[in-house]
Design goal:
Radius of gyration: 19 Å
Strand content: 15-25%
CATH class of the largest domain: Alpha Beta
Number of strands: 13
Bound molecules: NADP nicotinamide-adenine-dinucleotide phosphate, ligand G4F
CATH architecture of the largest domain: 3-Layer(aba) Sandwich
CATH topology of the largest domain: Rossmann fold
Order of helices and strands: EHEEHEHHEHEEHEEEHEEHEHH
Number of helices: 10
Distance between the termini: 46 Å
Low-confidence stretches: none
Structural class: alpha/beta
Length: 326
């Protein structure tokens, strides 16, 4: 029988790759999309004729109830969030509402209208925050360093509680940074790949950045949505870390991105701006995904340099296309 899936955060980076994957696997796919004055469907333009888009907002319980009733899901992937750490310092209440309480609203809708559905919660390595060990795995304590991280910790524990208190099938994927050509423009990797592409085309001279010394475990998003799906195919609900196991600094990513574009004097194109520093930074994240490999057979393949190449080349090409005379 055809399985039905409901994906919140359908217009985002992960939502778009996940819906593609689920369509390939033969699912009937429903994507939750919030109302905006101008629709933001760039990432899913190619999918809109193949999925059912449902109106809803993580702030609005009744719209979530309706979306769950209408989709009758076997699987729900809760990817919607105010997901940008920088903004969470400026809008902590909104971030808590969407990223924290929003997850509980999703769980409440499922408890009432689809209690047999399997639920994936997009948890984050930001929850580890100020780490006391390296690498981080499922047993590493949480010490979040941003309102976003705090909200994700709340959502994580809500999921564990709905599993224990109500017997729902709810699993957390604790994913480290994963990027792609569909990444939002404010995130570091995409800001850099897009900035480098503009410099390559002579459309800009510099990129303005913050802390170049922070280190992240960066992987390629399509491989991480495959992990989300695998987590829900497991016989029991459980929590899994998803990571490449390699950490690199922001500086290394910047250098590599300029190298891909054939620009050697990268330092002359980078300006450091205090506004991009965070009030409390996470200096080093590196994940240990051995549990996901052992139990789910998941292992990411794309390496750091390949990721930079994919992203820079995609941005150079897309600016090429947009500059062609029509
Ligand atoms: P993203 O590109 O920022 O997408 C976020 C999605 O949430 C967008 O579709 C956005 O819709 C939607 N959204 C925001 N507020 C909403 C609301 N009030 N109601 C309904 N939808 C709302 O994020 P992503 O990179 O795909 O990440 C997916 C999830 O994984 C997020 O929960 C993120 O926090 C988490 N995560 C991401 C990473 C990573 O490295 N990418 C790592 C760990 C965890 P609009 O398009 O309308 O804004
Ligand atoms: O790309 P970022 O904004 O990602 P961050 O903060 O690690 O969060 C991302 O990954 C999390 C998983 O760990 C997700 F849960 C979350 O939703 C999001 O997807 O910043 C990466 C690093 C930070 O240390 C930041 O301080 O880059 C540093 N950085 C330096 N200059 C900058 C900049 N980040 C941004 N966005 N912009 C800068 O100019």
């Amino acid at each position: 029988m055809t399985k039905s899936a409901l994906v919140t955060g359908a217009t985002g980076q992960d939502g778009s790759f996940l819906m593609e994957l689920l369509l390939k696997k033969g699912y009937e796919v429903h994507g939750l999309v919030r109302r905006l004055s101008i629709p933001n469907i760039g990432n899913i333009q190619h999918l809109v004729d193949h999925v059912t888009l449902l109106d809803g907002d993580l702030i609005d319980q009744s719209s979530l109830n309706a979306a769950v009733k209408e989709s009758g899901p076997d699987e729900v992937y809760n990817l919607a969030a105010q997901s940008f750490v920088g903004t969470s310092f400026v809008q902590p209440v909104l971030t808590g509402e969407i990223t924290g309480l929003g997850a509980v609203r999703v769980l409440e809708a499922i408890r009432a209208y689809a209690p047999d559905a399997r639920v994936y919660q997009a948890s984050s390595s930001e929850m580890f925050g100020k780490v006391d060990r390296e690498p981080q795995d499922e047993s590493t304590p949480f010490h979040p360093r941003s309102p976003y991280g705090v909200a994700k910790v709340y959502a994580y524990w809500a999921c564990v509680n709905y599993r224990e208190a109500h017997g729902l099938f709810v699993s957390n994927g604790i994913l480290f940074n994963h990027e792609s050509e569909r990444r939002g423009l404010e995130f570091l990797t995409r800001k850099v790949s897009n900035g480098v592409a503009k410099i390559h085309h002579g459309l800009a001279k510099t990129i303005s950045l913050g802390n170049l010394d922070a280190r992240r475990d960066w992987g390629y998003a399509p491989e991480f949505v495959d992990l989300m799906w695998r987590i829900l195919q497991h016989k029991q609900p459980d929590d899994f870390v998803g990571a490449t196991g390699e950490a690199h600094s922001v500086r290394e990513f910047v250098e590599e991105a300029f190298r891909v574009a054939g620009i050697s004097d990268w330092e002359t194109h980078v300006k450091i701006d205090e506004r991009h520093f965070r009030p409390s930074e996470i200096y080093n994240l590196r994940g240990d995904a051995r549990k996901a490999k052992r139990i789910l057979g998941w292992q990411p393949k794309t390496k750091f340099k390949d990721l930079a190449k994919i992203m820079v080349e995609a941005d150079i090409e897309s600016l090429n296309e947009s500059r062609k005379p029509r």
